[in-house]
Amino acid sequence: MYKNYTTKPWLLNPLYAKILLIMRLTTVILIATFLQVSASTFAQRITMDRHDVSLESVLKEIRKQTGYSFIYDTRSVNDVQHISISVKDADLPEVLKKALNGLELAYEIDGKIVSLIRMKSLLPFEPVKLTFHVTGTVRYKGVPMGNVTVRVKGSTLGSLSNEDGTYAIDAPDSDVILVFSFIGFKTQEIAVKGRSNIDVAMEEVISNLNEVELVSTGYQRIKPEQSTGSIATINEKQFNSRINTTDFITGLQNKLPGLLVNNDIKYEEEPLFQIRGISTFNGVRKPLIVVDGYPTELDLSSINPNEIESVTILKDAAAATIYGARSSNGVIVIERKKARAGRSVVNFRSTISVKPKENYERYRWDKNGYEAIVANAKVESDFQGPILWDFLADPYLGPYFNYPEPVNIMAQGNAGVITDAEVKQKLQTLGAYNNAKDYSRLFLRTAVTQTYNVDLSGGNDNALYYLSANYIGGTSSQIKNDNNRFQLTGRTTFNMSRKLSVDVGLSYQESRNNAAPIPDIASLYPYERLQDANGNPAPVFNKSLMNPYYNQTIMAAGLFDNLYYPLQEVNEVSDKTRVINNRITADLRYKITDALNIQIGGVYERAKSEDNYLATEKSAVVRQFMNYYAEDNFAGGFKLNFPEGSLLKNTIADTRSYTVRAQVNYDKLLAKDHAINVIAGGELRDIVNQSNSSAILGYDDQTLLHQSVDYKYLENFTNYGMSMFAPFNPYTSYQDLFKLTYADNRFVSVYSNLIYTFKNRYSFSGSLRVDQSNLFGTDPKYQYKPLWSAGAAWNIEREKWMQGFNWLNTLKLRAAYGFNGNVAKNSLPQVIAQTSFNFFNQNNTIPALALLSQANSGLRWEKTNNINIGLDFSIFRNISGSFEYYRKKSTDLLANSQIDPSKGGSFAVVNQASVRNDGLEFNLNGTWINRKKFSWNTGLVMAYNANKVLQYYNPDPALRSRIIGRPLGAIFNYHHAGIDADGEMLITDKNGVTQKFTPTLFTDNLSYAGSRIPTFNMGISNRVDMGRVYVYAMINYFGGMRTELPVPDPTAVRPLEGVNNYWKTPGDEANPDVLPKLRYLYSSWLGRSDQYTVNAAYFTLGDVTAAYSFKGTSWAKKAGLGNVELKVQGSNLYTVALNKQNYSLATGSYAKSYLTPTYTFLVNVSF
Description:
CATH topology of the domain at 215-350: Ferric Hydroxamate Uptake Protein, Chain A, domain 1
Helix content: 10-25%
Organism: Mucilaginibacter auburnensis
Distance between the termini: 46 Å
Shape: elongated
Radius of gyration: 36 Å
Number of helices: 18
Largest sheet: 22 strands, antiparallel, barrel
CATH architecture of the domain at 215-350: Beta Complex
Membrane topology: Multi-pass membrane protein
Subcellular location: Cell outer membrane
GO molecular function: siderophore uptake transmembrane transporter activity
Family: Belongs to the TonB-dependent receptor family.
Strand content: 35-45%
């Protein structure tokens, strides 16, 4: 049977259909073009037609077309005045061979330099006897490589490899050294030692770990010595020292100073992902992500970590102001791999990751279930007394009294329904069982994630291409939860002429996720059984919304079972999501002169998702809806306003964005001492977000039919007073089934950035950007205010008086000052309101309007004033690092402020708050040993950030939230002074007086204890290369923060260790580890004492990676493989905390005492 759902996100609107059609046609054209591209050479192409000219003029023309420099004896070249040469689209070695034909000159290419060498004249009567013949094949990554220069060291004897990589050369004897060289590749010297066949694997010239030739800001590329801003970069080799499988953010943790990545510590429910602290209260906190020069609105999962070539973070105003109103939180610039000229190269990479199930035996849960159960039941039953049982069974009051089973048992005992012996026996039976093993068996499994990635690249000087396909499939640790993701990307460069080039990039990603409602074990009481004696699903307290005794009453009356059965719900509820991400980029660059060019380009992105949530009529979701909306017809039955059948909720979300940019670039060295690098341009940007949620009720998944429903009636329905059987509200709100949102944010910007360098020692920078948006207010004094920066850098090591310090390679001092901006969207220049309705009058359907926010005519960007001072150094050519100080003062932050009540409210969100971040950063990279077959590199990153609220209106200081003079995430507690002879809790007030605890004393004597957010983070990485093997390890540290321990509460769902160690009889107070009497344990008071506030600093052994490369082995050569690499990695291996409880926030909760590791295996093949 075919099922045609009523809404399908893949049924595209005409505009999107046309765009997708264009993408498909473009992809076909690109692939067809790639197949026609000749990849016969790795070199620059030269076209020349010269007759009867000097050799010097020919060399100048070659230099003009290729950029290569020549070194030669002028007497040898000036004497050659009459040569002729005609070539078209030829490579450099071919042109040189023709130009030097018949001359006593040979050439040698090293990097971008060509050396011409005069051959030694050989006397006729002393001929050289070439007695030894050598042949072989030259390859690069397993691919035959032509036009490689092969010569006998110390002589003029030489040849070139053919198109199929083969070469042949005659040598004077069998003990010579052959030299193999090619532009952009390492020159190799190989001793013949009697061998007649020698195969060679060429290697590209790759900068070592400390070298970065150019730094990309997304708008321009600058030399590191010219940079005045705070920039940190990680290259491909550093990034891929660990195995990165599904996301790239994890691979950056503690690798770049100033970037804080921590998924285990949250601020206001968000994991920490920030650059140099938090600079906003209500705006965006995450850094701006830029991919290949353009900001992206897509989910970070759309970035394939296998494609990353480098990651750069821009931290201060001089570096990031060019991004204007989105730069306060810093910028992460991602450069993805691009093609290189040459034969097609294929890389295949596959990983499999395994994560074991949780080991609940190692959790800090109470092992003596009976005592905790008795304490729990005693608290509630003693409070209500013997009347509790009457309440539980009462037809009117029953819905309002819902307690865990031990309380129900104790209530029956107190009411005399069962004997004390029966109470004890029932409670002991509950305490003897723990559902942790059954939970693991029924709901958990070993998580497995597999990835496959293949990329193809190649081309020549006229056209380059890079294609990549990536698949990720996995099963999570919870049953019936899995995800699959496929991604296809392509990037190409067309050099249409010497002046015009075009870059085009396409990306398509589709993901499908299946989810089922697996309960959190922390929401299940340990004594609750998930199955009955016959293996059938059993109900649990959480989400049942009704005690089991009253549930029997409503079922007898004809309503539905209102209890929640986790094992049944897994099979009756499904949630399937499909997400499609598209990205198209295009850049056209026209070269006016060597120094001046124009760039026009842009990016279009679209992310569209559809979520289908299906709950059958057997699910608790639907059963509780039917009960809630049932009306007593007072004739022995019920009217079901919520129909029987399944519930199908469909949610479609759509994000569309584009950026169009026009930019002029000028980069020139003037009169040797003056270098200018300037850009100026403008941008248009638009971001549209919209979503629509709707539901079908009474749905049949087989016939695809559904029942008609009076939705207006349900919208205004209330069952208060309508039925004696009315249960509590369902745990899923009806209003959540229907929702519509739309937002359109438009921006127009102009910008410029200038870097001037004098004598290659002193650099000065300035940047300016003006952003306008429909988010702005109407007050003219805030219009067109620019964000700007200025910076300076001094390359001290290039001063003449520093030339004697040969061990000092780099010493640069830099400073910058300027302003960044940030976008917060919880205030608008218009009034924000939403429709409402009347909950209490079912017949009144007059729409209402709820005022959510006042119009803010003075709305403007949140602004961050940024000061940065940095020192960069490198010594002994193998140790480099930097030290930085910064201050970020963020003002005009959106936050609540008092307003005139006559305007419709007491508070409004306006630009009035401020916060400051001060910090220090240190980075060190040292290659302690660097030999051919053994090297050792260490990376050290340390960062300190102190955050302080400067201005904020807090209407209730007792909440201790965002207190002026304290950091965000501040903790306040009081001094716990132990317990007295009656088990009462004591407190020491601010005057040092010990008193019996009262809520008033609690409020009046709170003092600052520290921040929940780490103020210090550190990463130490070590990589040791030993021939074909390397070992990599990463240690992380997070410190300078505090955390609050949970109190061992007997009323908790899963009580912690020590839950029974509370005061029971006089004399217990003599034990310092004894807790106060029971009533304090289930309140929040004890947990706010300094006794339960501890140092939260911790270390983790993040990654240990081992790799083995088969590159250059005989079997790999025979198989035509450039490289075969195997890796194994353990992640999240171990943690230790700096508190006596050894509670590490890395575990995710206090109950968990260990880390669950992930083991990953990788195979990487290139050919």
